[in-house]
Amino acid sequence: MKNVLIFTIIGLLFLGCKTEEKRTDYIINGNAPGIYNGVRSYLKMVEKNGRERVIDTAIVIDEKFSFTGKVLYPTLSSISVNSVNGKLNFMLENSVIDIAIDKSNIAQSKISGSSSQNDFERYQNEFTTIRKEAMDLKSQLRNIRANQTATKRDSLTKLSTAAEKKLQELPISFIENNTNSYYSLALIDIEASKNNANIDKLLAAYNTLDSELKSSPKGVSLKINLDNLLIAYQKKARVDIGKIAPDFTAPTPEGNTVSLNDIKGKVTIIDFWAAWCGPCRRENPNVVRIYDKYHDQGLEIIGVSLDGNRTQKDPKQTWLDAIEKDKLTWTHVSNLQYFQDPVAQLYNINAIPAVFILDAEGKIVAKNLRGNALEAKVKELLQQ
Fold this sequence. Notes:
By secondary structure, this protein is of the alpha+beta class. The chain has twelve helices and 15 strands.
């Protein structure tokens, strides 16, 4: 009898400690008080470019609606309801999720049942708090009275700057402090899609994540995207203003080769153009005028032609004819490979005309100036 009791207790303990199996699907139960029968609701997936894609729809019946389905991993999503302004962002995962729709402000709707939603809400609350602080401080600075002391103004300025910095650093800070959260993956995706994204910092933050997150389908695809963005960023960064212009060697019309370093002057213009480029040809008379005026003072130009597209029967002859017709008497080079030209690739050229102005040290000091602005910059540099 004693042995039976012991085995019974052990069995109960085993059952009590048994891990509950993870769900492989989701059920969203929407409670929508005040919303009429027949109104349609939409479940949308938020994609990496910030756009939303509808993945399901449901009809409100007796102030309720529901969605069912599966996701590979917790994913930033949204719900919108016809006749209700705005949308509700939330983290969708394979679980039973209950949503109480607030008809007056759908963004304030209550969500339960999604563990990654808790991380999402923590981030949003912290972001809102810091942003309000930053906005309040800016407002105080705008409304500061003339008779208030400089000390007070300086104090507010420092506080405002600190709040703005904290707001900018919040995404990375959150990711580094929540290395096992799927919302951290979503946050990296959001930040990476911004024009001013710091890809180096995002990659560093990604590398702090738990291995389970990084090996997930979302983690793997995100890493590929970050690597591609880093390559694009590096291409752009190497020809940013302030950088030394990368040297290159390319063939001249006569079949010789010349490098940028061979022809650099006190001021150097690298002019990416083509015979087929209308804006380039219309700007050429201005460039000729500037070259004739300042060449004796140290101005050099190297024209890099992007001729060689498939519509040109004889790209080289077309290039040579344009040089002669437009009276372009400076150095010219081209691989006649259109935008696949190695020099164009080196300088991350996606459209022409494109112009780089270099100082005597070969540093890029300006880009894409035309007309009087181009002449003014050349004159300024020659006088230094």
